């Protein structure tokens, strides 16, 4: 017995006639009679008493009627829900973003996406890139933004932003008038870092060690604005991505290019290769990819 059998049963019960039910369903009367007969044989009960062309539900038929109606309604609701999902009328996406990414790039992206898909809900989780990557791998998040490099065997990805880190110093710092600064010149400095669950934490330490010194970290934070305020209070120096630096107060903080080495800040969107993605999540990926491609094209045109 399947949903079609129940649908036919309900039509006969509604019309109290096999002939009228068949006409309503655009099938032949022998077809519906055979269908009801097969249900009765499967259940081992008689569903209808036949009185010529008229039929009445038996007590067994009455008992099944309410259940059958609930099942058919549930199935129709399920079909409608699936249709809505496939047409992207609704859905839910879990997205992980490092705090810097959320504040700098994605409010406009989220706004445009919501304009087009108002009934798709988005759960944003702000965490360091290492935590975001780990949560996507575990299935806690659907999609996330992390720093390159990432595990290409585990994740699909596409590039979002290619920028670099800049050096932040207090206006009274001895390097403030320099056009650029090499990392090896910072061996005696006090550093304000992101926390250990941020990819930049390990990235900067690795570059310092490669330059011949272990950085002296005096403060750690998860918020870029707090880090910049620590620099403005002359409590240390810091590195922040170039797009973030454009939002800082140039009177209170000096921003200098870092060279030898240039530390890249390349963002990529990732999702698991071996895990199912909802229609809404797939549309978010397509939408975001198109948006950033258009932005890159427009920037190239300006240049």
């Amino acid at each position: 017995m399947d949903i079609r059998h129940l649908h036919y049963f309900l039509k006969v019960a509604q019309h109290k006639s096999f002939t009228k039910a068949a006409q309503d369903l655009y099938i032949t009367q022998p077809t519906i009679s055979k269908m009801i007969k097969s249900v009765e044989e499967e259940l081992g009960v008689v569903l209808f008493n036949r009185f010529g062309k008229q039929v009445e539900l038996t007590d067994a038929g009455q008992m099944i009627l309410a259940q059958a109606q609930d099942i058919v309604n549930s199935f129709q609701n399920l079909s409608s829900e699936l249709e809505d999902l496939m047409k992207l009328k609704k859905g839910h996406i879990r997205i992980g973003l490092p705090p810097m990414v959320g504040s700098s790039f994605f409010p406009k992206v989220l706004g445009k996406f919501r304009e087009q898909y108002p009934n798709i809900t988005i759960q944003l989780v702000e965490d360091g890139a290492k935590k975001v990557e780990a949560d996507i791998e575990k299935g806690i998040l659907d999609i996330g933004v992390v720093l390159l490099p990432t595990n290409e065997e585990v994740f699909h990805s596409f590039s979002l932003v290619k920028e670099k880190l800049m050096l932040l110093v207090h206006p009274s710092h001895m390097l403030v008038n320099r056009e650029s600064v090499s990392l090896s010149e910072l061996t005696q400095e006090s550093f304000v870092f992101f926390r250990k669950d941020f990819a930049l934490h390990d990235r900067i330490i690795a570059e310092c060690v490669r330059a011949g010194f272990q950085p002296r970290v005096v403060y750690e934070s998860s918020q870029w604005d707090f880090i910049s305020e620590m620099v403005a209070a002359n409590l240390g120096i810091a590195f922040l991505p170039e797009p973030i630096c454009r939002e800082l107060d140039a009177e209170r903080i000096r921003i200098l290019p870092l060279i030898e080495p240039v530390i890249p800040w390349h963002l990529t969107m990732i999702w698991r290769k071996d895990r199912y993605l909802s229609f809404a999540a797939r549309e978010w990926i397509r939408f975001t990819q198109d948006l950033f491609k258009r932005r890159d094209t427009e920037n190239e045109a300006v240049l």
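The chain has a mean pLDDT of 87. DSSP finds eleven helices and twelve strands in the chain.
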